[in-house]
Write a structure and sequence with these properties.
Blueprint lengths: L1 H17 L33 H4 L3 H13 L1 H22 L5 E14 L2 E19 L4 H67 L5 H36 L29 H4 L1 H22 L4 E12 L11 E10 L7 H67 L5 H35 L11
Antiparallel strand pairs: 1-2, 2-3, 3-4
Helix pairs in contact: 3-5, 4-5, 5-6, 5-8, 5-10, 6-10, 8-9, 9-10
Amino acid sequence: MIKKLSCTGFAAATLLLSGCQILPNFQSPKAPIPEKFATPSSEAPAAVDIGWREFFQNPELQQVIEQALANNRDLKATALRIEEARALYGIQRADQLPTVNATAGGTRTRALLGANRVEYTSYQVGLGMTAFELDFFGRVKNLSEAALSQFFATEQAQRAAQIALVGEVAKVWLNERALAEQLQIAERTLKARQASADLVQQRFDAGISNALEIRQTETLVQSASAAVLALRRQHAQSTNALALLVGSSSKLAEQRALLSEQSITADISAGLPSDLLAQRPDIRSAEQVLRANQANIAAARAAFFPRISLTAGVGLASSSLNNLFDSGSGVWNFTPSLSLPIFDSGRNQANLDLATVRTNIAITNYEKAIQVAFREVADALDARATLASEIGAQQAMRDAQAARLELAQIRYKNGVANYLEVLDAERELYSAEQTLLSTRLLRLTNAVDLYRSLGGGLNEVSKQ
């Protein structure tokens, strides 16, 4: 009867005290951003619904991104951190369940009682549970919830790292292609200027030209030669940067696509700023970190309440090993304990203050992540609105400079103009070609930035 009442009372106490658990009621802070982007949103598909293979349609770029996703060391490290967080959560979650151990042992004791010597031998086998905490106030549960949120945060951080890697690889690849094309323009310009220098030399030998024109052509040739050398260095460094991102020890396949031939989907729906909270893994990661810190506050508050733990065991004991498993050798023990904090020199309060400060830091980081995401999207949208027109204007300027050079060369050959006019036209044409290529690169990288900032790049194929 006593055993039955004890079990009933224990169950009632458990139900009663379980209602005292201090569980966090998570509320996401209000997003500190406007409700709409300044640039109107289109009806195009969202970035998260476009796979990176569809967005980056160049086979060479697709191959580079695929290698990077497979070999990049930073991405591998984030994947391993997920496994680390999963293991930590498993450890913390195990504290919610009792640990049962099988024990076996023997003891031989010798003691002197006055003039008599007493020897005693005992053997034991059994199952035991040591100091299992009854989590009436939610301390262990909240610590487990904090570990789970940290795991989710790490998982979202890995997704954010993949998105960043896809975007960075694409931008470095486009920059490498731009430098390769700039190098082609510089080499072509050097060849043209060398031909012009040869022509001026022939005219000088014939007494038609003068020494000043020869020095002017030599200056342009040396300037073009220096530009070629600088671009070769920059192109080699860009190739090394791409190889580092790809993470493969083998050399990259030779890239043949020119930047002017690239076409990247630029029509992406930005949606509403509030959509970023669901589209951006970095924001979701910051939110999970906030959840973890709020759970730690609840765990720190629970430390002010009594802590109840149980130690119990059941088994067999005998003074003789041969009689250990005979009937009547059963033993059991049940030891509940209660610990109530009375004086801890302010340790519990300091832990609560620490958890509160860390939560406030997490709130600030969460709000900052939202603001950074909003600015990235807004900047990309603003640039997209004008870059197409800029390319058109730069293309018209380049064509006009090419026509001017052709006319200047004709005027010089016919003796109508001096060579200074030709030199000026060559410089302007070279500058216009480089500016046009830079603007094209800017438009392509802007499309990549918009795709990445809206959460694109996580899926390989588009969502149906």
